[in-house]
Specification:
The complex is a heterotrimer of chains A (47), B (369) and C (390).
Chain A (H helix, E strand, L loop, with lengths): L7 H39 L1
Chain B lengths: L1 H15 L6 H7 L11 E6 L8 H9 L28 E5 L8 E5 L8 H5 L5 E3 L5 E3 L9 H5 L6 E2 L9 E2 L5 H5 L5 H5 L5 E5 H14 L19 E4 L18 H112 L1
Parallel strand pairs in B: 1-9
Antiparallel strand pairs in B: 1-8, 2-3, 4-5, 6-7
Chain C lengths: L1 H8 L5 H23 L1 H4 L10 H13 L2 H11 L6 H25 L8 H4 L7 H28 L2 H9 L1 H21 L17 H27 L6 H36 L8 H27 L2 H25 L15 H24 L14
Helix pairs in contact in C: 2-15, 4-6, 4-14, 4-15, 5-6, 5-10, 5-11, 6-8, 6-15, 8-9, 8-10, 10-11, 11-12, 11-14, 12-13, 12-14, 13-14
The chains are: A mainly alpha (47), B mainly alpha (369), C mainly alpha (390).
Bound molecules: iron/sulfur cluster (2 copies).
Chain lengths: 47, 369, 390
Amino acid sequence: MEKVFYTLHDFMIYSEGITYLLMGGILVFLLLFWLFLTDSDKKKRTF
Amino acid sequence: MGISRRKFLGWMGAALGASTLTGNKIYAASNKQFKGYPDSFGVLHDTTRCIGCRKCEKACNKTNSLPTPSKSFDDLSILDLNRRTDEKAFTVVNRFTPKSDKPAVFVKKQCNHCLEPACASACFVKALKKDKTGAVVYDASLCVGCRYCMIACSFNIPAYEYNNPTSPKVVKCTMCKPKIDKGELPGCVVSCPVEAITFGKRKELIKIAWKRINKYPGHYKEYLYGEHEMGGTNWLYLSKYDFSKIGMSEDLGTTSAPALTSQALGAVPIIVSLWPVLLTGIYAISKQKDILADKELKTAVENTKTALTDEMNDKLSVQKEKMTQEKKSAINFEIKKALEQAKKETEETKEKKQRKNIKDKNIEVIDKS
Amino acid sequence: MALEKSRVNRPLFTPFNIVAGIILIVGLFLTVSRFWGGLGTVTNLDNNNPWGIWIGFDLLCGVALAAGGYVTSAACYIFGLKRFHSAVRPAILTAFLGYALVVFALNFDVGRPWRLPYPLFFSQGTSSLLFEVGLCVFLYLNVLFIEYSPAALEWLGYKKIRNFVVKLTLVLTIFGVVLSTLHQSSLGALFLIAPSKLHPLWYSSYLPVFFFVSSIFAGMSMVIFEGSLAHRFLHHKMDKTHLDESLGVALGFGKAASFVMMGYIATKFIGIASDNNWHYLATGWGLWFLLELIGFVAVPAFLYAVAVRDKNIKLVRIASILAVLGIVLNRLNVSVIAFNWHLPSSARYFPSWKEIGISLFIVTIGIIAYRFIATKMPILHEHPDYKNDH
Ligand code: SF4
Ligand code: SF4
């Protein structure tokens, strides 16, 4: 990491910022993955 | 309490060697990683030197072009009101008498410019920031006016312009950052006639303070207020008496504000990642149960259906048999009856015949004779 | 019967309309003076007490009592308790109105309300728990709006959009529970930053847990309480399913709330033990703390239990009122009453009548909006076109 943090506060602003972005991604990913996971079930059901 | 928890989590983090535990943030926060801006400035306030002249208050008022107060700065009776900072005064001096037979003590109050400012940690628009000079500065162009910073500050420093309807601001001491940037000293520091407030690099000030404490053992409490309070502050205080006796909280602890909240904040992404999994799992299970229950219901219905028809069939065949039996017996009976009747009839006719024969014979006999 | 007739004729000057009208008019005047003269003209807030009942009641209680939305929809759609289905719509509606009013109330409380979108879109102070709360409340308000919308769409007759929205139910419910968990707990975590200001009996590193767990039974109690109000005043709007299920809903939620409350009490004592604060219990603050915990949590929990065992609907309702009051007391304790406990009584905060007036104003708007929507839209009954459609 190139960025130098002098205070925990600055560090948290930075790391939490990334975490919040990650969280958005995680939610979308989980939803899509669940759909992927259960896709075959549905196909079976429709046959 | 705070320390022990922090230590405990620290050990846990070290023991697990993982950096994903939320507690580890606190560990990371311990003096190893974040020491604050290395060359930040601070002020040392030696309360044993302060004479309560209010010259610093006056200088502050002028430097920050604050409104002139109704009572002049020469009025020293105000010192006893135990005032706090407000929107018209960024610094105030109060008088305390910890021991009634000893001379009074004067204490200057203003923003302590925390190393890890609670106000900045609390602000949800980054309107408050720790500057590399050590000053905690405020940007009114971002402030929403939620006043969470005022809730957060353990020293009760920030004030709010409650009577300003259109552009209310949070106000507090700026450590005269504009002046420091120009290489000048803060207004209050320049004005003090007795050097009760000393400006310098925080590192140096700590050394100076401890030198004084060690040099005059009876004159000072062996404690440098602000060295560790709430993670440390850039303003430091020396006193002859217990700090609680001169209006300063001694129960603040040494955990910095961001460390206090990091645990709760650390739980957020974990919930976001795991709750959907857990909840979907519960949903799937309950749904599975529904499906199973449905299936069971269906098979149960089927089963009862077949059972019913079987039973019916059984009953029917029994009935049939019964009926045929009955029929048979009835027929038999009829036949028997008929046979018997026939028998009877034939017998009767026989008898009749016989009788007739006898009659005839008799007639013949009579005729012959 | 008499009540029902009067509603059919709709005379203007019912007692409800008169009281509501007065509150609204006074509220409007107070609103003008708030924005004309600033916070100082209507509130008793000062530099030591920056948060009053507009945060303690409008925000904290508002959010806690609107928890019925996520609790009910989770029970029905995630845990598969279909017998709560008829309770979902009224609960979602209350939650939606509750959150909408919370945001509305914030416009009164913050200094520059037109900057409320700043933390979301302009300058994110990610280190702040208030940022987390703001983000979640914003997102959840949207979720609630979508969750509520089928009722409005059925009313307006937009079948296609309605059917599409209904398909999203599960995803929205899960997202709603995640967001609710986060911001309900974060509202408690707001106070973690000020250990020296909040009385030790209330301050605990478990504050977020306390707030989250209490929001669960707050939501359930509110569903029961509100159900009893609706039964009294909107009985004619309920269909047979709703009426048939309502007893089961009240008893089911009463049962669940009772047990959750016991768990909550346990965690509260764990909180005291982990900070070794037992000695505070013997002080005046301790009595106040015990009053809150015993009188307004343990007692209603016990009443719930008795009521559920005896299938006593009246007692369930009484318990729900107590439990709701207990939540209000708890939130006010944390944010106002036990906050700044160190300060001398002369420096303590007490709300001005104008602050109370604005709070009443906002609650009244909520009740009127609920009544309007519940009488017009399929909330307490199913829309005839969409029967057996779940
Ligand atoms: S003393 Fe208060 S206002 Fe000053 S930096 Fe620290 S937390 Fe902020
Ligand atoms: S009042 Fe202003 S400076 Fe203080 S926390 Fe809120 S937005 Fe930040």
